[in-house]
Specification:
By secondary structure, the protein is mainly alpha-helical. Helices cover 51% and strands 10% of the residues. The chain has a three-stranded mixed sheet. The radius of gyration is 17 Å and the shape is globular. The termini are far apart.
Length: 167
């Protein structure tokens, strides 16, 4: 199994867990924030979905320069729209991973804002930290938001406290 296949295997496995949580987002609570400095539920859920699209920037480009970008968050108002957005990005990620030469993962990638460089590291490290670990971090946050809103949380790596078989 090559590096692309190993990464895709993890992405695909974790995608099931991500989709489980995204499918539970109650858009009637979209403005909910557990703290004044927290993202809203809606913004966090969209962010969790959009991270899956970052593979394109990380593997087909050599840098991300915020000074050159014009990022506008996707306007999503329903769970169905959120899942469709996520599924589309996941399908594109599979193609990008399939088509990226393994040698690309050792090339440097830089995150910057104009002249200010935040970091430069090999693309493999970037996809591990920004496309995968960053996703897991925000997915866990989403789980906390849902828990606070009394939405039952499905098991990710085994049963959760809300799974019926525990009672």
């Amino acid at each position: 199994m090559n590096l692309n296949q190993m990464l895709w295997a993890e992405v695909k496995s974790e995608a099931e867990n991500t989709r489980k949580l995204l499918s539970l987002v109650p858009f009637d609570h979209s403005d909910f924030k557990p703290h004044e400095r927290s993202m809203s539920l809606k913004r966090l859920a969209i962010h969790v979905a959009e991270i899956t699209g970052w593979w394109k920037e990380c593997l087909t480009q050599d840098e991300l320069d915020f000074a050159k970008g014009d990022f506008t968050p996707k306007k999503i108002t329903t769970t169905e729209e959120l899942l469709a957005f996520y599924d589309d990005l996941l399908a594109k990620t599979e193609i990008i991973l399939r088509d990226t030469p393994e040698s690309e993962f050792q090339k440097p990638w830089t995150m910057r804002n104009g002249e200010q460089i935040y970091f430069t590291m090999p693309k493999f490290d970037v996809v591990r930290s920004w496309c995968m670990n960053h996703l897991y971090h925000h997915r866990a946050q989403l789980g906390v938001y849902l828990r606070i809103l009394n939405v039952p949380i499905p098991g990710m790596y085994g049963p959760s406290a809300d799974d019926a078989q525990l009672y």
